[in-house]
Amino acid sequence: MAIGAVSLAVAKTCGMLLNNPLYLNIALLKHNQERPTMLSMPLLMVSLVSCGKSSSGKLNLMKEVICIPHPELTAKQGVEMLMEIQKHINKIIEMPSPPKAETKKGHDGNKRGQQQITGKMSHLGCLTISCDTIEQPLVLIQGICANLGLELGTNLHLAINCAGHELMDYSKGKYEVMMGTYKNAVEMVDLYVDLIDKYPSIIALIDPFRKEDVEQWDSIYHALGSRCYIIAGTASKSISKLLEQANISIPKSNGLIITHTNQTTMSDLVEITNLIDNKQHIAVFGSTEGESSDDSLVDLAVGLGVRFIKLGGLSRGERVTKYNRLLTIEEELVQNGTLDTSSSSCDGTGGRERETVTLVKV
């Protein structure tokens, strides 16, 4: 159970002895000890709000509504933009609700979907808000972006962590997408297709089903795989099993979330990312539940060259520490002239020198 921690400690120690940062030491491991001339930064996946099973509203489907800044933006620019969006979300949540109309019987006259949005900080580092419809959190973010002069689908995109395994009501054999609203696996495919049709700015669905619904993973991949990423997180097998079977195609997806656990060595991470790259899938490096303030996973993500990094929201000290580490690494790569910006058409800086930014703990 300690092999993952031991492996990480060895990698850190080796880096210190060679006077290399951890991300460079991992990159050397990834490239058979050949020092890469350029390193790329993973794209941000930042959780803005949570409307999952733990929320007080009727909506269960969206455990995380995630924002992905445009790839031409630097990590610093992306974080600053998302911090501004988060501030506006917080303001709306804190606004006092207007006086409620009363019916003749003295009951609340508000219609469903028009209730005051309330929220509390979650362990994910974002606000858990109460919503009653699927559209409500998306309209909220859409409106805030419009007020800030940002356009969803241009300046930034969205991803949804559906957490399908948490939605299943095993007594009914259906997914409870909203309180009292149940859909079977086939109906869920139609729901997701309608969602992407209505909100094309959503470019990724994470865990749309539990892993047992293999046929529906196939169906949604064929229906939406060319329009958005279908990503397996909890629904994926463990890294050791994926490496043992050398098969990442079950469930059918075009991306995997990988994490560093106590059972995962640095060599395992290198092997699984190589497998993902060879299969032309995308790798998302994610954080684990019950996190610490150790920011090593950011170095791992950069060294492994993953496409996305998913650290949760911009609040809570253990997450803020990791975002700060990401910005520090980016600045080091810029100063060393080793930042690879070829994944985007331009570096998004407009020729200006990049500055460091430090997040404030919330």
From TrEMBL:
Region Disordered, as annotated, extends over 96-115, 338-357
Q: So, what pathway does this thing act in?
A: Carbohydrate degradation; glycolysis; pyruvate from D-glyceraldehyde 3-phosphate: step 4/5
Q: What is one process in the GO biological process aspect for this record?
A: glycolytic process
User: One Pfam family, short name please?
Assistant: Enolase_C
Q: Which InterPro entries match?
A: Enolase, Enolase-like_C_sf, Enolase_C
GO cellular component, alphabetical, reads: phosphopyruvate hydratase complex
- Report if keyword ATP-binding is assigned: no
**EC category:** lyase
Domain Enolase C-terminal TIM barrel, residue spans: 38-343
Q: What is this protein called?
A: phosphopyruvate hydratase
Q: Which EC numbers characterise this protein's activity in its record?
A: 4.2.1.11
SMART domains linked to this entry: Enolase_C
Biased segments, Basic and acidic residues type:
101-111
Question: Biased composition, Low complexity: where in the chain?
Answer: 338-347
